[in-house]
Structures are given as C-alpha cells and as structure tokens.
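Example record

One chain of 146 residues, shown exactly as stored in the release files.
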Amino acid sequence: MRLNDFSTPKIEYLDHTADLGVRVYSQDLKTLFECTAEAMLSEIAEPDTIEEAMLMEIVVKATGLPDLMRKWLDEINFRHEVDGFLFRRAEVREISTRSIRSLVFGEPYDRGKHTRLTEIKSVTFHQLQVEQLVDKSWVAQVVFDI
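Predicted structure tokens for this chain:
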C-alpha cells in the first residue's frame, strides 16, 4: 500500500504574510509541474474566461529541479506580463532534472472578456521545494511575490 494516493493531484494554498504560497502533490514529475503552473495561472486570472486559442512553447534549463520550477514558472509569468497573454494551462512535453520543454495555452488579454485576479511579480526562492517522497510521489512548494 502506498503512503499517499496522488493519482489525482492535490493543491494546497499556504497561509503566507504578504505573498501567495502553494504546495502541490502528484504521482509524477510531469503532472507536478503542470499542476503547479495551473495553481499559479488560476491566481492570475479566472481560468473559465480564457480560451485555448493559441499556444506558446516554453523551454527552460536550470541547475536542478527547484531551480527548474522557479525559472519555468517565472518564464510563464514573464510571457504573460510582457506579451500580454493569459494562459489557461501548461502541458509538459519533456522534463528532466535540468530542463523542461512545454506548451502553454491561452489567448491575448481582453479587458472586456477576462477577469484578472492577482499580479504575480515573481516566483521566489523562499521555501522553494521540489522533491520526491519516500513513496515515490512528488511534492512542490512555491511562494509567489504578489
């Protein structure tokens, strides 16, 4: 019997003073990254208002899994802020301990259509965690500067 059953990923929102924190549990690394991105994206804008009208490839390299998570989420947020897109979801195509190739799906921001919720300034190093548990499931913890 497994210690944890994360066949359905689990997202917890952490009580944090001035920032937003999430802890995500999943059975595999790919889903862990996708669900952590989903948690971030659902804080930026109401997902139900965003259509998957376009996609963008995001490729990131890093020194290890925590750094990869931070850089990847930061890049998704950067594309949102700089290019003016709202993303509904992310799909990981390839992942290793030092690189990720993914697609994000969404559309250009439309003030009349989309409900924006929170501005995320950056993904922080504070309490950053990505690790495999004893039962081979995965956990990620990320704090966003808002």
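Notes: The beta strands are 10-14, 20-26, 54-61, 85-95, 99-108, 122-123, 129-132, 138-145.
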